[in-house]
Amino acid sequence: MGSYFGYSDDSFIVAENQTRAITGYSFSLHLDSFEDEYWPDGSPKDFRSQITIIENGLVVKEALVRVNHPLEYKGLKIFQSFYGPAVAVTVKDIDGNPIFQDSVVFDGSLSDQGIVWPFGTFTLGDNNLFCAIISSAGPSDPLIPAGELRLEFYDMDSVEFLDSFPFAVGTPVEYQGLSFSADYLGQFSGFQLKEDPGLVLIWIAFALLMAGLFLVFYFPHRQIIISIQPGQTGSSYSYAFLGKKSLASDEIQSLTETLNGVDVETHERKSQK
User: Fold this and answer.
1) What is the pTM assigned to this prediction?
2) What residue segments make up the domains of the chain, in order of their start?
């Protein structure tokens, strides 16, 4: 549908080593890696994503995407927009079988007294658990040490707080018979996806334009202006025809006969008492 009517997504988020399908298209985007650079004052200097386009299980295109240097594939433009931290999480049941294995992006934030904590969430529907992973706000964070995480559990229906634990890479957390592991810390990339309306709309617009031109040239606008003035011995009239008189000779002849038989073959504009 996007190739016909246009498509736009200003917040398409993919974590490192994660593949995400693009709604309405036959291909997916895989984020191979993300890199960022900073100036000495801490402001961003550059950030870029190495991505792979996968279609029907095959790699069809690879590119390095950075700000103002998008990748285009089948009419869809992929722009680098924003980025942030992410963590790869694995959850196993009591038998050691993975029931969740994906990257959780820290695309939300909590703030209190000037301290901002990035966080991400995921759900385990079969266990009725809503899980939040909160990242440290940095060296000045009084609650979560720098470089560490905190894992919180909520009831998925009531959103009631259940419990929380420190969460670190390589140190699993056990809760309700489940094992939660942070496999590694990484990054996510936020992309802007955009495709303008395609050929179908262009052809429709062209057809409407041609139809309008046809109506203008083959059914020209015609207008007759008549002025009738009272006089002492009767009324007089005059008329003017706007457009080609040859295209309306019958109408002019009929009008002239009605207005006392003025000869239009020898007069384009005439008055008669």
Assistant:
1) 0.60
2) 2-195, 220-272
